[in-house]
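Complex record, two chains
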Amino acid sequence: MNYKTENIKTINVSKPLKLDCGQTIKDFPLAYETYGKLNELKDNAILVFHALTGDQFVSGINPVTNKEGWWVTAVGPGKAIDTDKYFVICANVIGGCMGSWGPKEIDKKTNEPYGLNFPVITIRDMVKAQEALLNHLGIEKLLCATGGSMGGMQSLEFCTIFPNRTFSAVPIACSTSHSAQNIALNELARQAIMADPVWEKGKYLIKNVQPKNGLAVARMVGHISYLSEKGMQEKFGRKLQEKADYEFSFDADFQVESYLRHQGSAFVERFDANSILYITRAMDYFDLSKHFKGSLTQAFKNQKAKFLVISFSSDWLYTTKENKDIVIALNASGADVSFSEIKTDKGHDSFLVDEPEFLKTLKGFIDSMHIKFKNEKRI
Amino acid sequence: MNYKTENIKTINVSKPLKLDCGQTIKDFPLAYETYGKLNELKDNAILVFHALTGDQFVSGINPVTNKEGWWVTAVGPGKAIDTDKYFVICANVIGGCMGSWGPKEIDKKTNEPYGLNFPVITIRDMVKAQEALLNHLGIEKLLCATGGSMGGMQSLEFCTIFPNRTFSAVPIACSTSHSAQNIALNELARQAIMADPVWEKGKYLIKNVQPKNGLAVARMVGHISYLSEKGMQEKFGRKLQEKADYEFSFDADFQVESYLRHQGSAFVERFDANSILYITRAMDYFDLSKHFKGSLTQAFKNQKAKFLVISFSSDWLYTTKENKDIVIALNASGADVSFSEIKTDKGHDSFLVDEPEFLKTLKGFIDSMHIKFKNEKRI
């Protein structure tokens, strides 16, 4: 990646954090951004968790990449998550590459970027690291914890780790643990990166290079899995890329090839290859029941938060069935949960694009939770 | 690949063949194998077409790899395609690497392997090249033309190019043209190979090396797409690979990772990377209607062959819907067609594994076609 991350908001997390791998860390940076204002009653704070390749720049223009925030469709003034009403917080996950403690940061022991000396982290670790940010911002209890994909996983972990720190949660397009197919797709991405000789067992940053070829292929894996078969067919079909007929070569004849190549090459400008390894590993290790002897019911026991689980009908990465399994577990533990499957051809990407039914559902839930939370606070 | 292909059956195709790219070729090798005996009436010949990474060694032990033939579940003595009754023929496709004319063969002009100087071929070209083999074997009309995946595409092309040369056809788990998602997955495989610096724009064989890393990643793409999400979950789930807990590293913690790594590394021993480029390209270019002004009805016009189209319920690479589109087109052109969707969780791979309902369906159709064909011949 070619971006500078020096001038972004960061806190130093001084409190020791014992990671799932056994290592204890402290005094590490956590980068974040906020949108809107925290009101006096402190009943309007929403913590958004980002997905695999996201960052803390949810809305408006990302000051580092100069592109739109990754959830600008849902978050902003007058949007489903209305920043005129709500105080929206998002932190870059640890393991990431937008200012938080990650494999591209300098290891004080060696004065070189961590690379593979960075510990393997989990979704739990990512979530625990964000507690300090809520304390820093003076927020005892959130109105809502939400996110899509890996962001949804974090919102679920947040509720199990901090059952009293959010009034509601909206996990979107996720699951309670990674399926074999999801692990396989992540492993494919990792192997593509590690197969690139420039990767050099993670030490490429010392030479100030990136395993661009491997990282681009890894990104293509993602983009294929984020679209549905039908959505891809409607968007690209067999349309040719600015040519009248096949060229009988290995150039990008089809629009879908050109799209994937572009997505791959654009991505290497903004993301660190080792971060992809670490974050996909965290996703694969994700199993909400792991710290509860394999019981999801135990994981959600005494859960006070009110849940809305949202899935997308054409999402084959985190299917409706997998999302329903979250609902079943929440029901079994007596939690307050509703569920909505949005009918769409846009696949897993649906939560990131302008999908009116989804945005309406999200807005309705959050606004109604705000009224309830306000009432609870006033009592 | 490390195998010798000198001692396998090959014919020299002397008749000039105009390829779809415009180039005309002649005097090229076509490798093949046969099983069973051609009977006197010559009513028992079945031409099997192989898929992307297949070869002519359908049944028994592959003499080159010393492993079982790729369709040993369906073809052999007493099997669905019973070699005690039928004469089974299979040719290695041009563009392949098991003795037929392909990118690893020596270009007489340069005395070096073709590499990217090999012309981009199509499924039509592959099928046309096999006409000479039928002539060589003295077969005017086949009992059946069949194959799965790319083999199914070839069986469809065979019927449109040679409408009078087969009595029946069984295209299995295929489509009338490659979808955007299929093109995307193939492009991913190609990019993985071309991203490997050892590939050197296709010239690696001159240095007697193979882009093993890229080819292994390409193969992993295939294996993910050949299994269904449910089948993968049942086979692997989140089972760990000979360990009690996560190792917090990038080794293969999960069985599914270990499986994919093994499939990738085993494949590079038996296949040529450039052949993957050429054959996937041919699949992406596949569009049965292309030579019929975009009309599938025209493609199947005057079709005499009797068809059985077979799909698998959990195949997400060539869905039942895509297979039904073949049936719809055949119906619209007045052809004799039946259709069977096999209910299974085994995904696209179903045609290669022991799937009793599929094998029974295949056997029933071929045996009944044999009776009809025999009667027709006797009249």
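Note: Chain A has a mean pLDDT of 96.
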